[in-house]
């Protein structure tokens, strides 16, 4: 068996004689099983130490591209800035490319620029459309790891998706609203920022699955393309709600919630329950004021840390079997707002 480490290093780590380690490593026999296990444990520990030593002094530059409202992208930026110092002994810095509105052509131009310039890794919250997926595929083929963040671009050959299970979060919202409404009849307003974010589409699908058995009693009214912008969302919501009646509740994966509340107030809708997503400054304020009922969220700092860890794994500075799980789905009410 070929070893990466000197036999004397293994012997020192295991607390065994050089002769004993030689018998184990070269399978010469006459060795107890517990002794062989001690040698293997020592080799594993030396491997961990080697990886830690390799990380020391390594500097990684990541590019974070996000199309999102400023209130959300600001929280993501803060999460990365808080977590990066804790990734020692590796050193991380991020180049943030944060925009509230980006066209597909602008996103592709930025991706191509990063492709030419180089990067140790990309973290992306961008629309899931064929042209963008193709641009990301070229970056992946060039040896730059890509992680999708909050919303997935699964057809891009990205390394992994970081965030909550969006379908399950939509089901969670559906479960709570269906139980709250009981036998009432009326409409639920479902709002998205855009139809081309996979994460919001998955939330919508999960939510709708809970009401498929009562289409005659509960109608789901969809509002989209407000891009989470309060001004644009309010205009769209007023136009829609002025023609509708009996909006009993709102499920808002797409943001712009101050605007939605204003439109509900101005059109005199009997809204009883409001579920939002993400603990940005607007939603925290609305929760404290009791204007929305609850917020479904995930821990952005944990997600930022996992994204950095996946980049380390790609660069062989974490074990190849290192894995992550979907982020836990959190529920915040006016009585348990977490400090993240």
Automatic annotation (TrEMBL):
InterPro entries linked to this entry: Bact_Solute-Bind_Prot2, HTH_LacI, Lambda_DNA-bd_dom_sf, Peripla_BP_I, SBP_2_dom
Presence of the UniProt keyword Flavoprotein in the record: no
Domain HTH lacI-type: 7-46
The entry's keywords: Coiled coil
GO molecular function, one term: carbohydrate binding
Coiled-coil ranges (or none): 32-59
GO biological process: regulation of DNA-templated transcription
Pfam families on file: LacI, Peripla_BP_4
Residue ranges of the TM segments: none
Main subcellular location of this protein, as a coarse class: periplasm
SUPFAM superfamilies named in the record: lambda repressor-like DNA-binding domains, Periplasmic binding protein-like I
GO cellular component: outer membrane-bounded periplasmic space
CDD domains in the record: PBP1_sugar_binding
Cellular localization per UniProt: Periplasm
Lineage: superkingdom: Bacteria
PANTHER family: ABC TRANSPORTER PERIPLASMIC-BINDING PROTEIN YPHF, D-XYLOSE-BINDING PERIPLASMIC PROTEIN
Similarity comment text for this entry: Belongs to the bacterial solute-binding protein 2 family.
Protein name, entry field: HTH lacI-type domain-containing protein
UniProt organism field: Kiloniella spongiae
